[in-house]
Amino acid sequence: MRKPVADDDDCVLYGECGKYCPAKAITQEGKRLRFDYEKCIRCFCCLEVCPHGALQIRETLPARLVRTIIGRKA
After folding, report:
1. Domain of residue 25, CATH code
2. pTM score of the predicted model
3. Closest C-alpha to 33, from 8, 58, 3, 59
4. Quick count: other Cβ atoms within 10 Å of Cβ 62?
């Protein structure tokens, strides 16, 4: 499973990601973005609208492990 994450060094809290998130899964907590992955529908609209390129997609650890295990069996 992949998920959006913010690079805190590049994020200037412009707010476009939260404004356009159809699931309303992005909020600001202090000087950081918070993603509610229970709400997130993985549409990655947030990546498309961020004018600073501060968001990226990361693969979760369990997903990487499964991909590695499946890759070894092939």
Report:
1. 3.30.70.20
2. 0.78
3. 8
4. 9
